[in-house]
Amino acid sequence: MVDIQELERIGNDKFARLEEVPEFTVTSNTVSQGQEWPIAQYSGAMGVPGGRDISPHLAWAGAPEGTKSYAVTIFDPDAPTGSGFWHWSVGNIPADVTELAENAGVADGSGLPEGAFQLNHDGGGRGFIGAAPPAGHGAHRYIITIHALGVEKLDIPDDASNAFFGFNRFGNTVGRASLTVYGIIED
Known about the structure:
Elements: H1 4-10, E1 25-27, E2 58-61, E3 69-76, E4 85-94, E5 99-100, E6 117-118, E7 140-149, H2 162-170, E8 173-183
Antiparallel strand pairs: 1-2, 2-5, 3-4, 3-7, 4-6, 7-8
Protein name: PBP family phospholipid-binding protein
Organism: Enteractinococcus coprophilus
Pfam families: PBP
């Protein structure tokens, strides 16, 4: 029998049905937990006035023992797509790297550590694409997550989907750090 109450409790918490792992800390000089993105992190490519599609600064500490690499994702579960919207997906960040500079998510990958890769965002291009919630749709959550992985490298194709990346990432996750920021465009 399906436990409807449990499904309602889970809602769209993308970690709710995954194995629990130790948490560690992620911070940013760009934005803080529960705050709205600065305008530079909105999407000029998607028509937001003043948006510049600049990825945020991220720093993390306290990952669990056994961490061999990191992945970074930024996801909007509130996008009116039925499947959310992936704004940035980065993998194979070496374990000795614990910070990404603001604008590390440029399309050509030149801002990333050696050996790291980034997949296409859901807008169709590489790198970070900023927030662009539809006008009048209300506030959207942008979940920034650092995934500590127990493998040095995920062997996935360059054209992998974010779902395929997630399947491989979550199967190797030994720790997780997350913060949620908001974006809103008024009518």
